[in-house]
Amino acid sequence: MTSSPGTPHPLLPYGWSDTVAAGFAAQEARRGLSPGRVVRVDRGSCEVVTVDRSGRAVCVRAGTGSPVSADSTAQLCTGDWVTVDAEQHVVRAVLPRRTAFVRAVSSRRSDGQVLAANVDRVLIAVSLADELDLGRVERFLSLAWESGGEPVVVLTKADLVPDATTLSYLVEDTERVAPGARVLPVSAATGQGMGLLADVLREGTAALLGMSGAGKSTLANALTGTDAQRVDATRDGDGKGRHTTTARDLLPLPGGGVLIDTPGLRGVGLWDADGGLAQAFTDVEALARGCRFQDCSHRAEPGCAVLAAAEDGTLPLRRLENYHKLVRENERIAARSDARLSADLLRDWKRKKALGRHMMERKRGPRQEG
């Protein structure tokens, strides 16, 4: 189903564009299939906004239509563009993702989890009600850059900062660890900075991510102008946030653009983030070009420009230590993933070999006695 010439496409509020339309061109040859975008995923099914026979955008529940892939990062995710069987309400195909925000499921496993697909911007919500954790910001930025989306650090609850001077220092501290990314202090309670943030989100799709208690649900409600997301107060005992958002939801914004709200995270592990780390730590990478040895690890080598910068204060020691920490973590997860891939390949090879032996025995027929 396509819109008439000169009329906006029904899925325009959900991120439809010429690029998306081109991706569906090959799929439209199959009759009875309609384009759609996943707005929410549950076990065994999902909610998809698609186009009905009258040309209106409708949200339907659809089956995934295929077994869960062994590759955890290939599983259906909020933000995916899909083709839907209009009669049976089943997802038939998933278009290749332009971008994807992926994290490691845990530090003990080698599985990746896609939190949002086909995003143009990654909003990293950081609460100013708590002490600013720059190391955590650097972690999120590494994954945001790796996703292919543009990172934007949103400092929430800015109204709780006692004065403008303190707020400016917090913004400056964040900007120092976020080269190339925008840093926006906002308050959903007072409206401070919300107009500028809405302008940033006016086109494309943005994923809203952050730790529990960062104020994401309040921010999502302020941006959408609704109470789409439930909001709870932080716990009295430790000030930690409650998980008010329990699933990833795709929400059209009234001024244009699309927001994917995600549940608060307890942790976010790196996943294949070599490129993202390089972009998040461009200052370290730039200094490294002045090291005496090309394979310098920036730990104890003579002529290390990175260590020299850390010693004279040009590069904060905290930032260098976190860089080393994230690089080690990324390498550890990559090694586990490679080992798992090798084991899977060996298992498949043995299975195919056994199947081939079985087929050969069948062709030979039963053995003749005597």
List keywords for this structure.
370 residues, alpha/beta, five-stranded antiparallel β-sheet, 32% helix
Structural notes for this entry:
This protein is of the alpha/beta class and 370 residues long. The protein is 32% helix and 21% strand. β1 and β2 form a beta hairpin. α2 crosses α6 and α6 crosses α7. The longest helix is centred in the last third of the chain and has 48 residues. The chain is globular and about 70 Å long. About 5% of the residues have low confidence.
| Tally of DSSP helical segments | 9
Question: What radius of gyration results from the CA coordinates?
Answer: 24 Å
Average pLDDT, rounded to a whole number, is 85
- Biggest β-sheet strands, sense, barrel: 6 strands, mixed
| Order of helix and strand elements from N to C terminus | HEEEEEEEEHEHEHEHEEHHHH
End-to-end Cα distance: 69 Å
Number of strands: 13
Q: How would you classify the helix and strand content by structural class?
A: alpha/beta
Summarize the structure.
The chain is of the alpha/beta class and 370 residues long.
